[in-house]
Amino acid sequence: MTAPTRAKLADGRDLLFFTLPGHRPAPVEDRRPLPARDGQQTELRFDRTTGQWVIVAALRQDRTYKPPPDQCPLCPGPTGLTSEVPAEDYDVVVFENRFPSLSGSGPALAPAGDGFVTAPGQGRCEVICFSSDHTGSFADLPPAHARLVLEAWRHRTGDLLATPGIEQVFCFENRGEEIGVTLTHPHGQIYGYPYLTPRTAAMLDRAREHRMRHGTNLFGDLLAGEVADGSRIVARDDLFTAFVPFAARWPVEVHIYPNRFVRNIIDLTEDELDGFARIYLDVLGRFDRMYSSPLPYISALHQYADTEAQADGYFHVELMSIRRSATKLKYLAASESAMDAFISDVTPEGVARRLRELR
């Protein structure tokens, strides 16, 4: 995996530079008068009605909110006084979030008991900047640059999965103000959770039941079924398949699967990483061609650790958008937000057909 160049920010947070061949990172001293970081800044509270942990992170109320372009904290800051990336330029950088939902290390999270149960909000939250170009997007990246982002994801996944107390590593991107993005510079985030998130736990439970009944992997069987049906396939090659899932919950939803079973991005071969970059850029390009303005989306990398509890997990990416037409958004109102009962306004087959046509 690519070895990054490491530096420190003024308050002691880690900063990592991932660099294209022929480029040399040149960080400068971060001279901002940042306050010292507190020890444990967040907490977990256990919801006994659902069996789920809730992160309480009041410090995030003070996070940067829609700054003007000339004050973007993700653009390069060659003076060391203005930016989270004190450097003249960069290719891809990762740094600890200044306003983290989770921070600090510790032992594995103990099972919750009765009463009002709290626990330290340990874990790790990182920001990954895909490019120094403030007006760009992931879909605009050249293939070699997109591949470098994948290398950064791969490096951070390996590092975080090896950290005591971290159970799940989640790389993701939110794109578009409609999604809730407050910094328009192209970037994503990487979370190291001290527990399995509810969706991951539910999918692993289903996959375990499937294996007990059928002796096969649920995700692999779903992929084979989508390929056999064909009506929801968006793009496919020897290494990866992109499709709209049969029971898509979002107006635009595409899943990308490697054609062989792997648990996380670390397990992909070099050829598969190249193939992943190609099909990921392909799908994002189709997203941007759907309407006259770029499609707001969430990109979620579903990854699993090499443990018995997560043995049935199959690495894949889920891309989703709340835009249901050129002029309308899908709001997650009562049925979706209160009951987690999704209602789709479009057919998955129709969305897949539209995306296939957007070559």
TrEMBL record:
Residues 208-358 form the Galactose-1-phosphate uridyl transferase C-terminal domain. Zn(2+) binds at C72, C75, H134, H185. The keyword Manganese does not apply. One of its GO terms (biological process) is galactose catabolic process via UDP-galactose, Leloir pathway. Residues 40-196 form the Galactose-1-phosphate uridyl transferase N-terminal domain. GO terms for molecular function: UDP-glucose:hexose-1-phosphate uridylyltransferase activity; zinc ion binding. GO terms for cellular component: cytoplasm. Pfam families: GalP_UDP_tr_C, GalP_UDP_transf. It catalyses: alpha-D-galactose 1-phosphate + UDP-alpha-D-glucose = alpha-D-glucose 1-phosphate + UDP-alpha-D-galactose. It comes from the Bacteria. Binds 1 zinc ion per subunit. PANTHER family: GALACTOSE-1-PHOSPHATE URIDYLYLTRANSFERASE (PTHR11943). This is Galactose-1-phosphate uridylyltransferase. It comes from Mycobacterium parascrofulaceum ATCC BAA-614. The gene is galT.
